[in-house]
Amino acid sequence: MAGAESGSGAFSMSSVVADRSLVFWTLCSVILPVLITLWCSFHRSRRQMLIRDIFYKSEHDWHYTDLFGQPSYCCVCAQHVLRGTFCSCCGLRVCEGCLKKADQHFLCKEIVMRSEGGARGSMPHHWIRGNVPLCSHCMVCKQQCGTQPKLCDYRCVWCQCTVHDECMLDCLKVEECTFGEFRDLIIPPYYLSTIDQMRKDKRTDYEKHWIPVIVLANTRSGNNMGETLLGEFKILLNPVQVFDLSKITPAKALQLCSLLPCNAVRVLVCGGDGTVGWVLDAIDEMKIKGQERFIPQVAILPLGTGNDLSNTLGWGAGYAGEVPVEQILRNVMEADGIVLDRWKVQVTSKGYYNLRKPKVFTMNNYFSIGPDALMALNFHAHREKTPSLFSSRIINKVCRYFFYGTKDCLVQECKDLNKKVELELDGERIELPNLEGIIVLNIGYWGGGCRLWEGMGDEPYPLARHDDGLLEVVGVHGSFHCAQIQVKLANPVRLGQAHTVRLILKSSKMPMQVDGEPWAQGPCTVTITHKTHALMLYHSGEQTDDDASSVSEQEHMREQTDEDV
């Protein structure tokens, strides 16, 4: 009995020890990963804090990427890197561990510097080693650069010339930089520090054959390519002439025009039609301030959803990265100057006790009331609620024209419009047929690429123009009719052309829009009159089938513009 009791006691003790051991190892298996995770998280957050601190204090424009778009090597340790940081101005690429050292030892592009040579003086090359562009060639031996799988060869951050390591002689290191192919678009780093003195000396030699460009990019437009484009333009140009409109207003950015040669500046707007209108409004403010001689000409890189103004001026229906940034700058240099009519839209609400001021808009593209405005209003409301779902141009068009258009075909919220409104063209009242919508056009394109005024093109109507001081007014029978017009299966109801349009909404509330900005409007009077002209740039490089039919009309338009100038 005693032996059995001692044996059972020993067994119970061993089981207790085993249980405690199991509990201990269980706690270790749970707590240890948590501690390791916390330790890693602490060091990661500390490292990110140090990186952000370097980003904030640095003269470089550092950005972090999880994957470089091409084989890349750290400019400090020369190791191959898949992810790391890069400067969007000078093109330096480094791993995280070498960021601090690179920030201390490598200079970025100097946007402003002193020079004794004036605005068009000389400056040495600014060489950066490694990560040269693909298919680049040595300026000395003309052979391809960057062919070896290592950090090799040099690139000048201003003229973009590349040189082999073995071709980099001492005489080449001190050779003057000519700023390369885009010398006529670049604002030299020594220009801004000398312009005041040159104007006091009344020197004008710097103005000859120089058409500096200012890039204004909206990083929130359409397909969210603005951020990438900002970096590419900063590489090719002076970063001081490239602006992010999400951080600075066009009015402030365009103040740079007053420091540049008169009547020579060109502005490239990267964004949708709304962004273009924003920039043109800022240019109108320059006119009010008496800065007419500094007014720039405006080119467009279409990043929005509709891009009808861009399409009208030959810049295309949308940009998705298919054209290199270098070619875009060449197109801006070669573009022809034209004039765009801008219109004042005044909406005066009815009512004896209405003390509110009339709403005043500026129209570049078109005004509409009816199903077209209703689709825009529904799309705008849903995009405001969930903007992340509407970051693709294709998805935006599908939602706007298919989903909301189909819904309106079934509901017909805008029927019997002809009984609710009165239309006057140049003071003459127009008898309206049975319609659901009225559209007032200033440009040739509407609805994301449709030439609305011409319709199917089977009737001899003159092409819509944007510089003749005339508006084209059409009617539509509904959303399905709009869809038929877009695929050239129907013609619009052409109501006429006029210099002044007046529309009276007698009863109920109807959707309206001006250049894609929709709202619901009660009884009111809408008056559209000519406001001013905008100086735009027309690109005639690529043409669609619709554009081919209007080549002679555009040539006549440019010839007439030249005569006016």
Automatic annotation (TrEMBL):
Keywords: ATP-binding, Cytoplasm, Kinase, Lipid metabolism, Membrane, Metal-binding, Nucleotide-binding, Repeat, Transferase, Transmembrane, Transmembrane helix, Zinc, Zinc-finger
Topology class, membrane: Single-pass membrane protein
Domain DAGKc: 208-349
Pfam entry (one): DAGK_acc
EC number: 2.7.1.107
Cell compartment(s), UniProt: Cytoplasm; Membrane
CDD domains assigned to the protein according to its UniProt record, in alphabetical order: C1_DGKepsilon_typeIII_rpt1 (cd20801), C1_DGKepsilon_typeIII_rpt2 (cd20853)
Any one GO MF annotation of this record: zinc ion binding
TM helices/strands, residue ranges: 22-42
Region listing for Disordered, in residue ranges: 543-565
GO biological process: glycerophospholipid biosynthetic process; phospholipase C-activating G protein-coupled receptor signaling pathway
Catalytic activity: a 1,2-diacyl-sn-glycerol + ATP = a 1,2-diacyl-sn-glycero-3-phosphate + ADP + H(+); 1,2-di-(9Z-octadecenoyl)-sn-glycerol + ATP = 1,2-di-(9Z-octadecenoyl)-sn-glycero-3-phosphate + ADP + H(+); 1-octadecanoyl-2-(9Z,12Z)-octadecadienoyl-sn-glycerol + ATP = 1-octadecanoyl-2-(9Z,12Z-octadecadienoyl)-sn-glycero-3-phosphate + ADP + H(+); 1-eicosanoyl-2-(5Z,8Z,11Z,14Z)-eicosatetraenoyl-sn-glycerol + ATP = 1-eicosanoyl-2-(5Z,8Z,11Z,14Z)-eicosatetraenoyl-sn-glycero-3-phosphate + ADP + H(+)
Pathway listed: Lipid metabolism; glycerolipid metabolism; Glycerolipid metabolism
Compositional bias annotation for Basic and acidic residues: 553-565
SMART domains xrefs: C1, DAGKa, DAGKc
Main location: cytoplasm
SUPFAM superfamilies per the UniProt record, alphabetical: Cysteine-rich domain, NAD kinase/diacylglycerol kinase-like
InterPro entries cross-referenced by the UniProt entry: ATP-NAD_kinase_N (IPR017438), C1-like_sf (IPR046349), DGK (IPR037607), Diacylglycerol_kin_accessory (IPR000756), Diacylglycerol_kinase_cat_dom (IPR001206), NAD/diacylglycerol_kinase_sf (IPR016064), PKC_DAG/PE (IPR002219)
GO CC list: cytoplasm; membrane
Phorbol-ester/DAG-type domain residues: 59-108, 124-177
Coiled-coil portions: none
Function of the protein: Membrane-bound diacylglycerol kinase that converts diacylglycerol/DAG into phosphatidic acid/phosphatidate/PA and regulates the respective levels of these two bioactive lipids. Thereby, acts as a central switch between the signaling pathways activated by these second messengers with different cellular targets and opposite effects in numerous biological processes. Also plays an important role in the biosynthesis of complex lipids.
UniProt xrefs under PANTHER family: DIACYLGLYCEROL KINASE, DIACYLGLYCEROL KINASE EPSILON
Similarity-based family: Belongs to the eukaryotic diacylglycerol kinase family.
Protein name per UniProt: Diacylglycerol kinase
Organism: Meleagris gallopavo
Encoding gene per record: DGKE
